[in-house]
Amino acid sequence: MIKPGKVLSVERKQTRLSITTENAQATIDVLTASVIRVRLCFGLLAAERNYAFQQTTWDDLTDPVFERRQRLAQTSFAVDDNATHIVLITAKLRLVIDKAAWRLSLFSIDGKCLHQDLANRALFVDSNQRLTHSFSRSDQDRWLGLGEKTGPLDKTGLRFRMESTDAVGYSPSSGDPLYKHIPFLLRAGASNAFCGLFYNNAWPSEFDLGATRSGYWGEFGSARFDGGDFDLCFIHGDSIKDVITGFTHLTGNPPLMPRYSMGYLGSTMFYTELAKRSDLAINAFIDKCNFENIPVSGFHLSSGYTTGEDGKRYAFNWNTDRFPQHEQFINHFAQQGLALSPNIKPGILRSHPDFTALESEQAFIRSNNGDVHLEQFWGGEAAYVDFSAESGRLAWKKRLKSSLVSKGIYSIWNDNNEFEFADTKAMCVADGLPENVNGMRPILSNLMAKVAYDAVREQHPNVRPFVLSRAGFAGMQHWAHTWSGDNGSSWAYLKSNVCTMLGMSISGVAFNGMDIGGFTGPAPDAELFLRWVQNGVFHPRFCIHSANSDNTVSEPWMHASVKSDIAHAMQFRYRLLPYLYQLAYTAHTSGSPICSPLLYHFWNDELCRDQNHDFMLGDACFVPAVLDADMQTKLQYFPSGETFIDTTTGHWFKGGSSYVINTPLHQLSWFLRHGQWMVMSSDQTHSDFEFIGALSDSIFSFYWDDGISFDYQNGAKLELELCLRQHKSGFELSWSPVGQLSQWTKAAVVFKIYSDRGCPMQLLCASANIDQVLYEEQWKACDEGFWFNLDTQCIEIKLHASHFDDTGKLLFNFENMIAVSI
């Protein structure tokens, strides 16, 4: 066992401290007042070469790779280097290092203990070269994060393995490890002491959060890595939200995805495995969607389209029996306004017709003797592309462009990209500092996604790419959507996947979802399929995908008994798209999740901390879990201090109590959070926009653009800030727009405002009276006006979009019928 030993010297250089100990070298970087990075190497520190950080304060070998990486301004901090300790102080944090025996302690500036290394056992390398970091903890702590994991959101008392693997058939309750490798923890300690720990180490690892007990060491946790340096970022915040957004900023906010990526994405392996004319089968699927009134935005093209004459899959190859005219097929999709997402795998079989060319282009990972390294892959021995080498990235990008992107493909589906290696002696180029492949595997998944994103941007500069990746490391959200891998078609998988994806959401990965209906196993029965769809429409990614074991295909119309309910739910998904798109924009600009567990919003309500399946979509939409068979009613708890509105009945539920709610099979279950707003549309074409809220003081924003281009960066967008406040005669709604869109000016603008004060006596807009109508059919037919829905106690208002070209106000008068100048 080797420990760092005593501190020998300390040197300050702008935003960095350099520290030498008896057996190690260390640096401490202050990125912001709330983010401190500690890096330690047993031996000499190598040059900085980092793949996860999108915010830095140092020169890095990968700066040319990450051209949009943000260089942070210098943050002021003080250092007290005394006889026993090094104390680093920022405006938010105080980091203390014991000089006698390397031990880290972190405190908030107001004195809360955020982290403390375990005394006498803080950091060491064992005889197998494994690095272990041990820290004190309390059984009262809550531990969140670690990305894609089965089990509850709270990881306290559990042990997890971090290592990307092709986990088909994983146990929905205890499968571990899975596809992603995100070594990020969030500790929620006593007195709301919140701290994130991001280990910038991609080696296979194990996190023990209380599974191991010891009479010697007390309550402790540990992170053990099979190799690599100690590289830990502390991320502090006053709330769980602050920590998560801080981690997301550090590893990269998601791009603004094209709007179609949040629509229904059809998919199944069945069609691309047909002997002939897969293209006709897929086109027939789209026609069937139209016939059944199922809105659809694209299709995921499974890897069968690449099958060669020997039945093996060859990346970038088009099977001419299945797709005799693939360019015509792609164009046909584009003419319908649909996206096509072809499946691509990074393993190149030895028999691939392009293998020799790729080898000559230095595209592959090699063994330590310099030979191309071969591993078992789909169909036999294959070489993996080395995405940590510029030559590998260029070779892959060239083929992406020539075979797919130049043909009109804007979306790439990266699959089977866990980079599993049985031989641990293979080496990656790693942009100039060669690295054992075990320290790079999940990073290669991220880089593969980045190359796909860049290929589309270079070929089509004004089209937003849409990349999907099954595997990845911390920061994968900066380029790609993801999903929960090869799940199964059972109630257990449905419940597990909801929790797993919520765990991804609070680990920085906002755009996630699952294969609705299950990927493997027999076809889901009608009730399971319907409930899965009804829950899935509220997740960022909505895709029905299957490889059913009973020769069936999971499709929206698969069960006649619930076909109309499925269609209703999927039509609702498109009504919801304006709100989802608003959340996508917020995720892009602020790093916040789209779906999130209740503890993210309502941490102070202890009853919400153990809720693993109820969730919030944004701040406004509460989605109760209806994830069991024969569930016609549910005893539902609502978070305390809040009020929630059933928009179907107009019933208000005061939080802090449980109520029996109806959950019939045909009904979508969701509630509007009082004081928050949603923007929806009455149809999938978004010919109107419905602002849905309640009569209470509130502020909200609306964002809209063309959904596909980068023109929004040059001002082709609409940002509408709205404020509802109490007024002497009732309420006043004011707005202020930024920008203008032709699509917006053609739309109807509708407000649906749930009122606990009944119907207003008068509505005025720009001092002009808004006519009241008494019948719903009159309101639907009029260009402008309002009516009061007595059943739901909702004020429904229709206005011309032109009112919102400039700042304006809408007055709700609940007093006498008199004109009030505004």
UniProtKB/TrEMBL annotation:
GO annotation, biological process: carbohydrate metabolic process
SUPFAM superfamilies for this protein: (Trans)glycosidases (SSF51445), Galactose mutarotase-like (SSF74650), Glycosyl hydrolase domain (SSF51011)
Residue ranges occupied by any Glycoside hydrolase family 31 N-terminal domain in the UniProt entry: 26-208
Ranges of residues in domain Glycoside hydrolase family 31 TIM barrel: 254-583
Domain Glycosyl hydrolase family 31 C-terminal: 591-675
Key words, A-Z: Glycosidase, Hydrolase
GO molecular function ontology, one term from the record: carbohydrate binding
Pfam families hit by this protein: Gal_mutarotas_2, Glyco_hydro_31_2nd, Glyco_hydro_31_3rd
Family: Belongs to the glycosyl hydrolase 31 family.
Protein's UniProt name: DUF4968 domain-containing protein
